[in-house]
Automatic annotation (TrEMBL), chain A:
InterPro entries in UniProt: 3Fe4S_ferredoxin (IPR001080), Fe-S_cluster_ET (IPR051269)
Cofactor: [3Fe-4S] cluster
Role this protein plays: Ferredoxins are iron-sulfur proteins that transfer electrons in a wide variety of metabolic reactions.
Molecular-function GO term, any one: 3 iron, 4 sulfur cluster binding
Assigned keywords, A-Z: 3Fe-4S, Electron transport, Iron, Iron-sulfur, Metal-binding, Transport
Biological source species: Streptosporangium canum
Pfam family, one: Fer4_13
Transmembrane intervals: none
Record's protein name: Ferredoxin
Domain of life: Bacteria
Automatic annotation (TrEMBL), chain B:
Disulfide bond as UniProt keyword: no
Family label: Belongs to the cytochrome P450 family.
SUPFAM superfamilies reported in the protein's UniProt record: Cytochrome P450 (SSF48264)
The name this protein goes by in its record: Cytochrome P450
Span list, region Disordered: 66-88
TrEMBL record, chain C:
Keyword Glycoprotein applies: no
Cofactor(s) required, per the database record: FAD
A GO molecular-function annotation: oxidoreductase activity, acting on NAD(P)H
InterPro entries: FAD-oxidoreductase/Apoptosis, FAD/NAD-bd_sf, FAD/NAD-binding_dom, FAD/NAD-linked_Rdtase_dimer_sf, Reductase_C
Domain Reductase C-terminal: 344-415
Residue ranges of every copy of the FAD/NAD(P)-binding domain listed in the record: 15-321
Key words of the record: FAD, Flavoprotein, Oxidoreductase
Name listed for the protein in its UniProt record: NADPH-dependent 2,4-dienoyl-CoA reductase, sulfur reductase
Keyword Aminoacyl-tRNA synthetase (UniProt): no
Database matches in Pfam families: Pyr_redox_2, Reductase_C
Gene Ontology, cellular component aspect: cytoplasm
Length: 83, 410, 464
């Protein structure tokens, strides 16, 4: 799977690192490191992390790759309402 | 009805079952000065902005009495405030120290790895419903579960529950801004309860120092990181905070959750069929029925201009989280419970540096609890709607939630 | 199709070409589809890879935790585009509305988005740059090569330039247990971006983590052995350093060469565009069907004296791409200004660094929260009596407060009391930027609105 964290939004609440420790790790108190190409088996963990992010900074792929049809996923950050 | 008394109406017990229409009225004045001098902030963006504003203090010692106002008495000097009621840098240091045995970066897997044990706890509690056709979700499930969890995590013997339960209730009751007894009496009783709970925990801490286990109290007294170690008093104030916060809030999240599900049977049905729904559902719950409704403890350190209103330095500020969560300027169709809501940046756990310490654990507990209840209770029905509520307007939730059901799935 | 026809027809059948298949290009394409563009969409990228994220390249990837080809960007939605990857755009015919490609083909468009970004500034002498062991870090291929070499445990790595990339490379090397020397021309790391006061903290961080940091020094030559492998670096103080890896981190160059002679206002500083992301031609006249977004764009920002800012920021690429895409398929009154307040982050030596506003405009700095010595603080930069920027070290939860101060042109030095103000935060000091070439006046404007769609500029009377 693919994911990206908007680290401008991220404020180091570390909820993702609690809930999906195989994908998100804190580097020091506040800096976040993550695996942008996490294994598909971690998707459930990553969904938990994305849902819990207090600033909704985690974007998970909505489609697998170029050209493939859209696959709706419940958890996503809206494009326009958030700052 | 003037807006200057809306807070009183909101904290009045008669409003407990449904304060939301009053919040809507409050939002017509985003920053509303109450007759008693308190400033109530009720709209989403203004609350978020203040939660991230260093001109606000969480330390009540910064309060300045307004004309005609009597400040609450000083707290017990032997038991100083916990980090919840402190500002940086003390807050930051204590919270870092408390985080070390709890989460990343030092213990990144702790909460995640509790998942299996938590699941066994909830299924054990539901097993206990066997042979009944009605239970009280609060007494039989939503209260005992988080208590088991926090005891295990902290290293507090579960058999002592009867002792600390009374103290915890008294301390929490003191958070009620509109109590039956006078403020002085309430503070005195709460202080005594806090001292007794502190003394009890001091004994435990001494035991853990002698024979450390794999629990947070042991780690707090033996650990030595870059910030050093908490002082003995700091360990106790932190333990009091975690013990109380750990079971007086999650009980409401779970109970509010079950109540909301029973009021939305179609959602309950979906959760039954799709346990993954629990993840976004709990987030929506935190928005829709947050267990901490408001933060009544902030003080302005400077004159602060919020949405065109200047809050004078020294004023008491109440941040109405539950109201911000229903702000139509932020959330589309805010009074609708929509477990698949997108863009759900709710304030259920607060924001900024005081963001709920136990949030990851509370989320996991609520997800597992609601999934298990949905899966196993067959044909569940609310016996009373609304159910009887607890007195407290800050930590709001039902006192009892009687639920009848047709049977128990395996 | 003719653009002077209806916008509806363009939305339905128009041809959009996006040159640059990275973050800005991808997000623009997604926004076009999201907002109902159903015409043809062509994505042109010089790298063979589909759009990927760059910030992890100098962090997770260099730590060996994530493979260099493992940072492909997630998609917000399907974009149904024709992809022309691995082929660079080499020219633009404004009159004929065609993009020329390196393989000789041409692609026609009705509206064009230029999002070609930047590339790493190479070591100036080709023969030395070609030595085995000399690296730059911009693309995933760069990161793959450098990571492989770091995994082979070189005896010493030389990082040339202590900006953000150089500092992050040095941090990763130290975390891998490698010996690192950082050579910086300025007096401290990050000094160009954050000034000398904060630069001194960055220097402390580096030294505490075992970096051999050398400031006010330049590398005068890189020397190889007969087999063409890097062996030694010569320094401006006359010293030499035995190294087998050198990472050149001298900043970025904007990819605008392909636009030379096209008639667009493009040059080494980027492609100039208006606040609505429409490119200017060489006469300074705004075009109507050429849009620009991301690192390659230079656009005027009302908060900063309407200066043309080029921002090599991740967040700017996303925000500007969204505005550009929206404006490409919207009529005049529906178009939005790109009013993003500059913001960036860096993670190095276990510290989370964040910044908002334009720190180099700052004349003075005041540490409003925490302490420089503890490496945990928030500091505000002042310019002509207002807050112009801020920086935090492990204080990210406060950064939005400072963004709001910048947006509302709040007075500097701050006239308020706040938590955790230390003695060092009682008065501002010089921000200590090496080259304070700043304008002396400008209209005072503030921003209003909570979400990108309702952001507007508000003019306020200038302070005396």
């Amino acid at each position: 799977m693919r994911l990206v964290v908007d680290l401008n939004r991220c404020q180091g609440y570390a909820q993702c690192a609690f809930l999906a420790p195989d994908v998100f790790t804190m580097h020091g108190e506040e800096a976040l490191m993550y695996d942008p190409g996490a294994d598909e088996t971690r998707r459930e963990q990553v969904m938990r992390a994305a849902a819990a992010c207090p600033v909704q900074a985690i974007l998970i792929d909505q489609v697998d790759a170029p050209g493939t049809p859209e696959r709706p996923i419940a958890l996503e950050r809206a494009g326009t309402d958030g700052r | 009805m003037t807006s200057g008394t809306l807070l009183h109406q909101i904290t009045d017990y008669a409003s407990r079952a449904d304060p939301y229409p009053l919040y809507a009225e409050l939002r017509r004045t985003p920053v509303s000065r109450q007759d008693d001098g308190v400033y109530a902030v009720s709209t989403y963006w203004e609350i978020v902005s203040l939660l991230r504003d260093p001109r606000l203090s969480s330390d009540v010692r910064n309060r300045v009495a307004q004309p005609g106002e009597v400040l609450p008495p000083e707290e017990d000097p032997a038991l100083p405030p916990s980090f919840l009621r402190l500002d940086p840098p003390e807050h930051d240091r204590l919270r870092r120290l408390a985080t070390r045995p709890f989460g990343p970066p030092h213990c990144p897997r702790r909460v995640h790895d509790m998942g299996g044990e938590l699941a066994r706890m909830v299924s054990g509690l539901v097993d206990g419903f066997q042979g009944k056709d009605q239970v009280d979700i609060v007494e039989d499930f939503a209260y005992p579960f988080p208590v088991m969890v926090i005891c295990k995590l902290l290293g507090v013997p579960h058999q002592d529950e009867a002792r600390f339960h009374g103290w915890a209730e008294t301390i929490v009751a003191a958070l009620d801004p509109n109590p039956a007894e006078g403020p002085a009496e309430r503070q005195r009783v709460a202080q005594q309860a806090r001292s007794e709970l502190g003394a009890y925990l001091a004994g435990l801490v001494a035991e853990h120092r002698r024979a450390p286990g794999d629990d947070m109290l042991s780690a707090l007294v033996t650990d030595h990181g870059p910030d050093g170690r908490m002082s003995p008093v700091e360990v106790i104030t932190t333990a009091v905070l975690l013990l109380i916060a750990g079971h007086e809030t999650t009980v409401n999240l779970i109970t509010n959750g079950m109540l909301t599900l029973l009021r939305h049977p179609e959602v309950l049905k979906r959760l039954r069929a799709d346990p993954d729904l629990a993840v976004p559902l709990v987030e929506e719950l935190l928005r829709y029925e947050p267990p901490v409704q408001l933060l009544p403890q902030r003080t302005a350190l400077a004159d602060i201009d919020v949405a065109g209103t200047v809050i004078p330095a020294g004023s008491s500020i109440w941040l109405m989280l539950a109201s911000g969560n229903r702000d139509p300027r932020r959330f589309r169709d805010p009074d609708r419970f929509d477990p698949l809501r997108r863009d759900n940046e709710h304030l259920g756990f607060g924001n900024g540096i005081h963001y709920c310490f136990g949030a990851p654990l509370a989320r996991l507990e609520a997800q597992l609890a609601l999934t298990e209840l949905a899966r196993r209770l067959e044909d569940p029905r609310l016996v009373e709607d609304p159910p009887p509520y607890r007195q407290n307007p800050v930590l709001r939730g039902p006192r009892h939630l009687p639920v009848a059901f047709g049977g128990l799935a395996g | 199709m003719a653009v002077d026809g209806s916008d509806k027809a363009f939305r339905r059948h128009g041809r959009v070409v996006v040159v640059g298949a990275s973050l800005a290009g991808l997000r623009a394409a997604e926004t076009l589809r999201e907002e109902g563009f159903t015409g043809s969409l062509t994505m042109i990228g010089d790298e063979p890879h589909e759009p990927y994220d760059r910030p992890p390249l100098s962090k997770q990837v260099l730590l060996g935790r994530v493979p260099a080809d493992g940072t492909a960007l997630p998609r917000r939605r399907a974009i149904d585009a024709e992809w022309r990857l691995g082929v660079a755009a080499t020219g633009l015919d404004l009159t004929g509305k065609r993009v020329r490609l390196a393989d000789g083909q041409e692609v026609g468009f009705d509206r064009l988005l230029i999002a070609t970004g930047t590339r790493a500034r190479p070591w100036p002498r080709d023969a030395e740059a070609d030595l085995d062991g000399v690296f730059v870090l911009r693309t995933s291929d760069d990161a793959a090569r450098l990571n492989r070499r770091l995994a082979a445990r070189p005896r010493r790595v030389l990082v040339v330039g202590a900006g953000f990339t150089g500092s992050e490379v040095a941090s990763a090397c130290r975390e891998r247990g490698l010996e690192v020397t950082v050579a910086e021309r300025g007096p401290a790391p990050l000094v160009g971006a954050l000034g000398g006061v904060v630069g001194a903290v960055a220097a402390e961080l580096q030294r505490e983590h075992g970096v051999d940091l050398r400031c006010c020094i330049t590398v005068t030559a890189l020397e190889g052995d007969p087999a063409g492998r890097l062996r030694r670096a010569h320094l401006s103080d006359g010293g030499t350093l035995d190294v087998d890896v050198a990472v050149i981190a001298l900043g970025a160059m904007r990819n605008t060469e392909w636009l030379a002679g096209s008639g667009l206002g493009a040059g080494p500083r980027g492609v100039a565009c208006d606040a609505g992301c429409r490119a200017f031609d060489v006469h300074g006249i705004v075009t109507d069907d050429i849009f620009v977004a991301g690192d390659v764009a230079r656009s005027p920002h009302p908060l900063f004296g309407y200066q043309f800012l080029s921002l090599e920021h991740w967040g700017n690429a996303v925000a500007q791409a969204e505005v550009a895409a929206h404006n490409m398929i919207s009529r005049g009154p529906d178009r939005r200004p790109h009013l993003w307040v500059p913001a960036f982050w860096s993670a190095q030596f276990g510290v989370n660094i964040k910044s908002v506003g334009v720190p180099p405009m700052g004349e003075e700095i005041i540490v409003t929260q925490g302490s420089l010595a503890e490496h945990r603080f928030a500091a505000a930069y002042g310019f002509q009596g207002r807050v112009i920027a801020a920086v935090t070290f492990d204080h990210a939860r406060w950064i939005d407060f400072y963004r709001e101060r910048i947006e509302s042109a709040a007075p500097f030095p701050p006239d308020f009391t706040n938590v955790d103000r230390r003695p060092e935060g009682l008065r501002p000091v010089g921000a200590d930027f090496p080259d304070p070439a700043l304008p002396t006046h400008g209209p005072t404007v503030t921003l209003s609105g909570y979400s990108p769609s309702d952001r507007r500029v508000v003019f306020t009377p200038a302070r005396a």
